[in-house]
Every structure is written in structure tokens, then in C-alpha cells.
Amino acid sequence: MLKDLIDNNRAWSRGKTQVDPEFFRRLEKQQSPEYLWIGCSDSRVPANEIVGLDPGELFVHRNVANLAPPQDANYLSVLQFAVEVLKIKHIMVVGHYGCGGVAAAVDGQRRGLVDHWLHPIREVYAEHRDELEALAEGKPRHDRLVELNVIRQVKNVASDVFVQDAWARGQELAVHAWVYSLADGLVTDQGVTIAGVEDFRRVWPRG
Ligand code: CO
């Protein structure tokens, strides 16, 4: 089976250079992506493929349930490099319906370390308990929690000092909330785009 993967790799590399002989030589020298994707690790949500971007065009950070926790050194390192060195212009936090991480956060079962990782989602649930529990249990409630989680992570990203400092410097940078549907392969923008401190104050007037 692994041999198949290596064969696939050879065919992919050949295909790329047939279309564009300089493709890899150019990428070897530098990357200049305009986008940072913060998405779920789920194998059904392949970042580049969903938005039709080639190697070199999308900077990617993925973890369970697409979180942007303000104390996570991994995420923060990616964010700082993307904003300050690559000077990417758009950050999209991308959740997906049917997210096992989001479901696991609120199903009451104990799994160990991941319960701690998923803690921020339980906080999102608690913050929006009335709205969520007015929805039918199961898919409607889960789908809304997925959307609310993405919006909460956008708030984390947009309130981070790396992003706030970029805006203070006049750097062009927007943070977007997207949700991907496994059922039809379509991304939906949740209508919460934060492109500066004015947007932030409008969406979250109390900070
Ligand atoms: Co997921």
C-alpha cells in the first residue's frame, strides 16, 4: 500500500513538471502564500484541494476541531510567521459540519487529553446554551455549535496581538469564518469577516 503512495507521488511530480517545468525549482526558492487556513485535522477536509490552490499558495495549520487557543505555541508560531514574515492577507478559520471533535466536546464521555483540548468548545456551548438548546438535539444543534465555534476562533485570531499589531502597522489582513460541508463539498462564509479594529468592535462591542 505504501508503495502505491510513492508511485502516486512520482506520477504527481511528473505531472506538475510536464505542465510547468520550473514548478518545483521556483517553489524551492520561496513561498509567497496569501492565505492562512486554520482547519480541522479531519481527513475529509483537505485544505488545498477544497479551494483549488497549488503548493506554495496556502499556508496551513490544522488541529482537532480547528481551534485557535491563545496559549497554544504551535498555533501561535504559525500565526506569527504567517502574519509577520509571509504577510498573508487572509486568514480563514474553517470548521466543518459533522466534526467529530466538536461532537466529542459535548457528548459527556471521557476520553483523556483530548477533553482538555476540546474544553474551549464546551465554553462556546455554555455561552450560547439558550440558543443551542432551543434547536433540536442532534444535527441542528451540532451544526450550529460548529458555526459558533468557528466564529469564536475568529475572535481569538482577531484579538491576538500579532494580528492587532499588524492592523496598527496598517497591514492588510482579514480574518474569515468558514464552514465546510462534507455532504456537498461546499464552503459557506459565516458573514463574520474582521479586517481591522473597527470590524472587531462592531461584532464584539464589549471585547
Ligand atoms: Co473536525
Topology overview:
Elements (H helix, E strand, L loop, with lengths): L1 H18 L3 H7 L5 E6 L6 H5 L6 E6 L9 H13 L4 E7 L3 H7 L6 H5 L1 H9 L1 H5 L5 H21 L1 H8 L5 E7 L6 E3 L7 H7 L4
Parallel strand pairs: 1-2, 1-3, 3-4
Antiparallel strand pairs: 4-5
The site of cobalt (II) ion (CO) has 7 residues, from α5.
Describe this structure in words.
The protein has helices spanning 2-19, 23-29, 47-51, 73-85, 100-106, 113-117, 119-127, 129-133, 139-159, 161-168, 197-203; strands spanning 35-40, 58-63, 90-96, 174-180, 187-189. The mean pLDDT is 97. It is of the alpha/beta class. Strands 2-1-3-4-5 form a five-stranded mixed beta sheet. Helices cover 51% and strands 14% of the residues. It contains eleven helices and five strands, in the order H-H-E-H-E-H-E-H-H-H-H-H-H-E-E-H. Strand 4 (174-180) and strand 5 (187-189) form a beta hairpin. 28% of the residues are buried. The termini are far apart. It has two domains: 1-30, no CATH class; 31-203, Beta-carbonic Anhydrase, Chain A (3-Layer(aba) Sandwich). It binds cobalt (II) ion. Residues 40, 42, 65, 96, 99-101 line the site of cobalt (II) ion.
